[in-house]
Automatic annotation (TrEMBL):
Xref: Pfam families: TetR_N (PF00440)
Gene3D superfamilies listed in its UniProt record: Tetracycline Repressor, domain 2
Protein name as catalogued: Helix-turn-helix domain-containing protein
Organism of derivation: Mesorhizobium abyssinicae
High-level lineage: Bacteria, Pseudomonadati, Pseudomonadota, Alphaproteobacteria, Hyphomicrobiales
Record feature DNA-binding region, as residue ranges: 29-48
Amino acid sequence: MTRPKTQPDEQVLEVAYRLMHAEGPEALTFERLARACGLSGSTLVQRFGSKAQLKQRTLLYAWDGLDQKTEALSASTPRTPAGAIQLLGGLSSGYGDIESYAEGLLVLREDLRDPVLRARGAAWKAALSKVLVDCFAGIPGMPQDIGLLMASHWQGSLLWWSFDPEMELTAYVEHSLKRFVAAITATSARTAAGPM
């Protein structure tokens, strides 16, 4: 008979993700995780197998959290351009300060190296883009790929903020997205009006 788990995998993976995010992906070892969560290294090896499997499971857990956050924000977001800004502002709120954002880029590198994690990123991009498209539905002359365009602008604004993080991140993102929406709706209105 197996003994019941004293900590569910999700709780251990949360500790693993915090360790990875705070100290970089290479800091995630069974020894360090054992100290951080209070389980033995051998217990962690039994649960997760190898360091590579532990890292992948940790990052899949993080993707699950991002999917849940995106779904929750999407459910409460009005399907309007202002709602699209609200949604992306809400998704920006978890990045923290510049140090936290920089550490997150190291974690993103791990996502890009693993085909399974890249597939999760691609699925999230598609789901987020779809919600953003819905926020512009019914506006004449809007590009078909407005969702991906806006998501790309959002990601770019995060990066540009990181080089000069004087303004609070969500305020910077909101300001940038408002300018994007104003430009794209003005262009779409001219396109819909036709040649003069």
